[in-house]
Predict the 3D structure of the following.
Amino acid sequence: MIQVGIVGGTGYTGVELLRLLVAHPEVSVSVITSRSEDGLRVDELYPNLRGHLDLAFTKPDVKRLSECDLVFFATPHGVAMEMAPELVAASVKVVDLSADFRLQDTEQFKQWYGMEHTCPDLLTEAAYGLPELNRAAITGSSVVAVPGCYPTAVQLGFAPLLENGLVDTARLIADAKSGVSGAGRQGKIDNLLCETSESMKAYAVPGHRHLPEISQGLQRISADSVGLTFVPHLTPMIRGIHATLYSTLCSTLTGQSTQSLQELFEQRYADEYFVDVMPAGSHPQTRSVKGSNQCRISVHQPQGQDVIVVLSVIDNLVKGAAGQAVQNMNILCGLEENCGLSQVALMP
Amino acid sequence: MIQVGIVGGTGYTGVELLRLLVAHPEVSVSVITSRSEDGLRVDELYPNLRGHLDLAFTKPDVKRLSECDLVFFATPHGVAMEMAPELVAASVKVVDLSADFRLQDTEQFKQWYGMEHTCPDLLTEAAYGLPELNRAAITGSSVVAVPGCYPTAVQLGFAPLLENGLVDTARLIADAKSGVSGAGRQGKIDNLLCETSESMKAYAVPGHRHLPEISQGLQRISADSVGLTFVPHLTPMIRGIHATLYSTLCSTLTGQSTQSLQELFEQRYADEYFVDVMPAGSHPQTRSVKGSNQCRISVHQPQGQDVIVVLSVIDNLVKGAAGQAVQNMNILCGLEENCGLSQVALMP
Amino acid sequence: MIQVGIVGGTGYTGVELLRLLVAHPEVSVSVITSRSEDGLRVDELYPNLRGHLDLAFTKPDVKRLSECDLVFFATPHGVAMEMAPELVAASVKVVDLSADFRLQDTEQFKQWYGMEHTCPDLLTEAAYGLPELNRAAITGSSVVAVPGCYPTAVQLGFAPLLENGLVDTARLIADAKSGVSGAGRQGKIDNLLCETSESMKAYAVPGHRHLPEISQGLQRISADSVGLTFVPHLTPMIRGIHATLYSTLCSTLTGQSTQSLQELFEQRYADEYFVDVMPAGSHPQTRSVKGSNQCRISVHQPQGQDVIVVLSVIDNLVKGAAGQAVQNMNILCGLEENCGLSQVALMP
Amino acid sequence: MIQVGIVGGTGYTGVELLRLLVAHPEVSVSVITSRSEDGLRVDELYPNLRGHLDLAFTKPDVKRLSECDLVFFATPHGVAMEMAPELVAASVKVVDLSADFRLQDTEQFKQWYGMEHTCPDLLTEAAYGLPELNRAAITGSSVVAVPGCYPTAVQLGFAPLLENGLVDTARLIADAKSGVSGAGRQGKIDNLLCETSESMKAYAVPGHRHLPEISQGLQRISADSVGLTFVPHLTPMIRGIHATLYSTLCSTLTGQSTQSLQELFEQRYADEYFVDVMPAGSHPQTRSVKGSNQCRISVHQPQGQDVIVVLSVIDNLVKGAAGQAVQNMNILCGLEENCGLSQVALMP
C-alpha cells in the first residue's frame, strides 16, 4: 500500500481527497494535518467519513510527512512551496493542489498571488498535472502541480482546436460557470446560501488568477499567440463547472464541416478514460459528472457559421481538484491511471 | 380605472402580471381566461393572491374581452394572432407577451415557430415593445409585442455599443444564463427540480427562437451587418437572466478608454428609470433585480484589451415579461411609465 | 411623514426593513446606523435599493436618533437595552427586533442570552409585539419587542386551540423548519451554501432561545400549564418558516369535528388582515408568503383521531421580523395596520 | 457473477440501482426493461452511466427475465404482483421496490393503493426487506418487499424505543421531510423546480400511503397498540429524508437518563454496518448520507423532560430504495451484506 499524507485537509478539496482515497485499493492515508483542527478526529468534521477513516488531524510535521510515499497539499497558496523542497529531498512525491507550482513565470506568480516564489528551482522541475495534455512530463516527476478547476475545463475543451491550428487564437473567449464549492470552505459572507442561492453573477471580470494559468497552458499547445478573455461566474449549486468556449475558425477553414470537428474531438480523446466526447448535438450537464472524475465535452458550430462553441463540464472538486490529484498520483506511482477513480456520477 | 383582461393567465407570466396589476393604482383586472381552468378561482391556483383578487378563470370570449380597454396575452405562441385582429377592431389595445408579433419577417416566424402567421397586416402595425429602444413607436400603437426575456437583456446591454458603431458587429457573442421559470409552468420532466437543481447546462446551441429576435433588434440599431452567436444556459434558480456579452472594439477605436465606455453607458441610460448602469467595476447579481422591473448593467474592458464585456441582468418574469408588459401598458394608456412598477427587488 | 431611524441596518432584517419602509407612504427613513459600515452608502451594500434610498450608514448617535419619531433596532441582542432608555426618555418610540424586550423574566433572559438585563424597569413597560394576540398592549406603548420568527409562526398556529382550552397543553410539540436567512448575515461556515444546500438538519434540539419565548406566549393564553417540545430545523431555502404543530384534543373533546375546528380558526382570525386561514384540507407553502407579511394557517385532524395538526407558514424576514416591526409601527403611530404592508408574495 | 434484471429502469430508483450495480463486484446487469424507452441506450437517458453500462432498454419479457438469477422491480405499484409469480416459479429471486408486497393486509392494500392484490398467496411468503429489523425472514425468501423511504427512516429511529417498551406507543409522532426525488421522475407541475425550490410544505396530512406500512412495522416490534401521526413534508433538495420522531417516555420510566438512551441505541445497532448512532448531542444532516446506504441516528431528551426526540436521516434513493434493494440482494445471494455498498457520502 502506498502511504500518503495530506497537508491541510479541512477544506473541500481535502475532504474530497479523503472520499476518494479511503476507497482507493492501493492507498493508505497515514497522516492528515491541520494547524487549526489539531487533535480533532476527521470524521467529527466530516461525518460522511464515519466508519471509513480512523484518523485525527495533527500539526504539520515534515519529519512525519517524510515517511509517506507521497504527500498531497490541499493548502492555501504559499504553503506547498515552503515544505515541498524538504519532502522532495527525502524522496517523497509531492502533488500540490494549490497554485504554487502552476505558473512557470515567477513574475506572473508574484503579480497574481502577491508573494515571491520561494523555490524557483523546484518550480522548473514541477510538472503541470493535466495528464491528457502533459502525461509524459508527469511520469517520473517529483512535484506535480494539479491544475485549477477552470483551467482544466477550459484547456480540455480548447485543446483539439488549438493543437490543430483550426481557430484564431488571438480571440478566444471562455465563459465559465462554477458552483460555489470552488470558493472554498471559509466563513465569508459572499458565499453564504443567502448571498449565492437564487442568483447568478460574473466575478473577477477585470482579471482572475486562473487567466494566466489558462493562457500558459493554451500557449503551450498553440503555434500562434494566444489572446484569451476569461469570465468566471458564480452559479447557485455546490459542485460543477460549465465552460462555454468560443473561437472563430481560421478564415482558410471556413466551411469546415461540423462532422469533421466531431470526429476530431472524438479521435483526440479516444484513448482518454476521463474525457468523454458526447454525441454530436449534445449539451452536457454538470450533474452528469457530479462526484466523478469525468470531463464531458461537446462541440457545436451554430448555424454552420464560423464560430465554434465547445461545451466542457467537470466536477470542480473531482476532475477540477481532488480526482485529478489522485489521477496524477496513480501516474506517479505506476498504477492504472483510473485506479480508484471509476465512480459513477450521482444523478439525480 | 383602466379595465384590463388577461388571456391565458395560468402560467408564470400570468401570475406575475396579476401580482403587478393588483397593486397597480390605475388598473382593474376584469377578466382572466383559461380553457383548462374555467371556473377555478385564481387564488386557488395562486394562493399568494388570496385577499388581493376576487376573480375566477373563464373561457376565452372575444366579446367579453372587447369590453376591456386593454388585453394582455400570456398565451402560447399562435393564440394572440388569432384573437388580436377582432380586439383591435373593437379599439382594444393588445399587449402580447407571446412571440406572435415579435418577428416582422413572416418567413422567419414560420421557420422558428413552425406555423404560418395569420395576420401579417396587423403585424406590420405592431410595435416592438422595448421602450428604451423603441418608445416612440409604442406610443399610439394598437398592438405591442413584448420582447422575449433573453432579447431584453441582450439588446439593452449591446445597444450603447451598436448605436455608436464602436464594435465589430459581425462577431457578437451573447452567453446568457436563465432561471428555470423561463421554461414555463408545464409538466415537463426536463424542468423538474431533480433534473435542474445542482446542475448547469447550455441548451439550443444550434439555434434558439430568440436568436432571430435579437438579431432583428440589434440590426435596427446598427449601421453594419450583425452576426450573433447566442448560447442560452439553464441555471438552477427560479428567476433571473444574466447575459454576458462579448464584442470587439473596432480596430480604429483600439485604445478607447474604459472610462469613456462607462460614461457612454451612463449617458445612454441617464433618463431611463428601468435601466441602471452600475458603477465602474461592478458585477451585477440577478438577485438585485428579483421581483423588480430593473435591468442592471455594467461594462468591462478586461486587461485593457479590445474585447468589451457587458454584464446585463434582469428578472425574466418582470423586465423580461410581465413587468415590461405593464410598462408598455403604461405608455399606451398615457400613464407615468413607472406607475405601479417601483417594487424594490427581494434581497436576500 | 414619520421620521424613523434604524440602528444596525446591515443585516437581513435591516435590508428587509428598508425594502418595506422606502415603499411606505407615511414614513421617511432619516438615519441608519452601522459601526462597521460607517460612511458607506446603503445601496452599495444592497444594490436592490439603488434609486430608492439616498442614505449612508452613520455611527450610532443617540442625539441624532432622538430626533426621530420612532427607532427600529435590528441589532444583535444587548444593544437595544443599552440605548432604549435614553430614546424613550426623549419620547421616541422604540421597536426592537432583537430579543432584549421579549422575555419578561430577567432570570430567563440571563440564562438564555448570557447577559444581565440592564433596564428591567423599561422591560416591564415593553409590549410583546404580536398584534393578533396582544394588540391592546401595543397601542400606546413606548417600547415594542418584535417577536422572534419561530414564536410568531408557532403562537399564531396554536392560539385558537389554547385560547379555547381544546388541547392538552402539557404535551405540545412544535416541529419548525426555517430558511437559512434566519441565521443572519454573518460569515459563518455553517451557513455557507455548500454547508446548507441539498441538506436538512435539526439544530438546538437540547434548547433553542425561542423556546422560553414561545412558552411565555402560550402560557399567557392558556388556562393550564404549558409544556412544549420545540425542534427547529434548517432548510435549504433563503426565506420561510413552516411550523408543524401537534397537540392532542382534551379527552372530553374526543369526537370534536374537524369542521368545527376549521370554523374556530376562521372565526378567530376573521378580522385579521395578516392571518389567512386556508380552506379545509389545505397545505400552505412557504412560497405563498414569500416577501409578504401574511401568515397562512391550516388545521388538520388526521384520520379523525385526537391529534390535531396545525400548519403555519410565514416569511421569517417579514411577518417573522421586519414586516411585523412595521405592523407594530403602524399601530404605534395610529396608521392603518396594513399601511405599506400589502405586498403580494413573490410566486414563483 | 449474479445475473440480474431490472424491470422499469427509467425512474430515479432505476438509475440509482444501476449506479450501484455497475460498481458491484459480484453482479452483472443483463437486462433492463422499459415499455416507453424500448430500444434506447440506457446511457442516452442517463449520461452518468456512459462508459459504465453497455445496455439498451427492452420491452418487459418474462422469459428473458427468467434467465436472471434475480430481478428488481422499480416499477409503479401493480406491476410486480403481475409478473412476480411466474418469475418465482422459475426460481428467480424477486426484489420489489414498489409497494406491492409491503402490506400484508390486502384490504389495507386495496384501500391505500386503489387496486386488488392479485397474488395474495405469494404476498404471505414475501419478506419485508428491512434487514436491521427482519433479517432472518429475508434470508431464504423468494420475494422481498423493499420498504418505502419514509418507513425505513421512521422504523429504524423508533425501533430501539419500541422493542424495549420505553415509550407510550399510542401517541407516536413522525414528522418527516423528504427531498423531491421521492416524488419520482414524472412530468408533474407540482415537482418542477419553480414549484418546489425556495419553499417548504407538508402534504398528505390526512393520510399518506406510508402510514399503514409504518404502523404495520412498528406494531410488529411493539407489545402495545401503536397509534401514529405521520406528517410528510416536501423539502427543496434532491435527495434526503430527515425524520424527526417524538414519543413520550412511559410514566414508569420518567427520569430515565439520556445517557442510558444513548447506550441503548448504540448497543441496538452496534453490529449494523448501515446504521450509525451518532455521538450524544449530535444533529445528523441528510448530506452526511447523500449517495450512501447509511442511516444516521441521534437521540435527544430535550430539557430532560419525558419527550424523546429521535433524529433519523437517510438518502431516500439509497437506504430508502436502491441501496436497501441491493442490501437485500446481497442477503438473498449469500454475499457480504455490505458488498458493493460502502460508498462514502458525497459531501459537500
Q: What stands out?
A: Chain B has a mean pLDDT of 96. Chain B has two domains: 2-125, 150-316. The two ends of chain B are 34 Å apart (CA to CA).
